[in-house]
Amino acid sequence: MKKKIFISLKYKLTIVTTLLLAVISIFIYFYFPMKFKAERLSSLQDKANSIAKIAAYGVSSGKYYEDYDNSEEEMEKLINNEEIRYVMITMEDSTFYEFNSFTAVINEYQNNEEFISDKYEIMKAYAPIIISDKKVGDIYMGFSLSTVYDKIAELQTNIGLVSLLLFLVGSLVVYFIGKLFTQPLTKVVSAVNKISEGDYSQKLEIISRDEVGFLANSFNEMVDKIANSRHEMNKINKELENRIKERTKELETALKSLQKENIERKKAEIEISKSLHEKEVLLKEIHHRVKNNLQIVSSLFFFQSKQLTDPKIIDMFRDGQNRVKSMALIHEKLYQSGDLANIDFNEYVKKLTNFLFQSFGVNQHKIRLKNNINRVELSVDTAVPCGLIINELISNSLKHGLKDVEIGEIRIDMGYDENRRIILKVSDNGKGMPKDFDIEKSESLGLRLVNNLTLQLNGKVEYFVNNGTMVKINFPDPNMLKKVS
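RESULT FIELD:
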């Protein structure tokens, strides 16, 4: 970074004031002589014109009274005047009198447009000679300006000396005055620089009963306060340093303890993770084996039914097989998914209904299935009763409700109501239930099983007959109950 040039305040004040004095001195040196010259020339011009008029009056009176002595006396006065350089008098277009005609001709005395001639420094004057209101001649005179110019030169020299003296004296006075006023400021700056370097013992020894003295006193008081604050800050910093050191030791000890605990926790986490993995593997294996065992039971139902001839008994075996299969599918979904606690019920229902349609040999062009199941995850304790309920209701629709229907439809709806309870609806467009139907008096094992399973879920079942049959079941979501508790 480029270092800035330092210029003292007293030098700045001296330079500015010196320039101002120089301008004033130059102005005085040129202005007053020029003004004096203009006033002096104007006064001389008036005087020359007056003399010319007086001379013209004298010549005209001598001519009028034919007293030529008077005219000669008047011209003698003009010649004896040291300021007059030439006199030319013309009468009736001829030269009546001339004095120093060479100088007059050189200066073109008849050209009265310029009163001041540069040649020989002469001022021209003119007056007409009038007798009885008739102009009979002219008088031309030239006055010397050497005396005027000498006085102007002398005045300009004197003014120049006065201006120079004023410039020098003013500059010196301003310099010493600036030095007098800036000396205390210099001391203040020096003291401030030392304080900025950490030396708080600086004092300003300025004793005066003015603003500078008050500034010095205030500065000394400020330095004392800063020094005291600095001393207090040093004490606080030392105390803080000691506390930090102690706290650092405590933190280091705590950190070592935490590192040790962290190592032990990681070991425990590894053991827990290992144990959890083993349990997951074991739980999957359990679900797999339960599914296999249920599959064996289902197969036993199937093979046993092959040896029977009574259609009612065969239907009973098939119903038992389907119930076992619905439970086996749940365990199959559990060990196949990553979540061993809950299953995606939508996927489960699709697989279960496909199995039931195959089991009953349903023509899917004749009977259609519509699933409208929102994303619902159920635990195994809830999924098994729900699966059995759906199994019983669809089986009942296929065996009874849609038995003689040409084009049938089974619809399954499942989701949450405004109270976060699970709503399950199974409906068909079959012939429906009898009007006097009473679940308590019904001999249907499937419907009684539906009623008992609903009670197991702490739910409620409702039957509706309108262009078919609709069974509506609502029950609380166990997962939501766990979150609330």
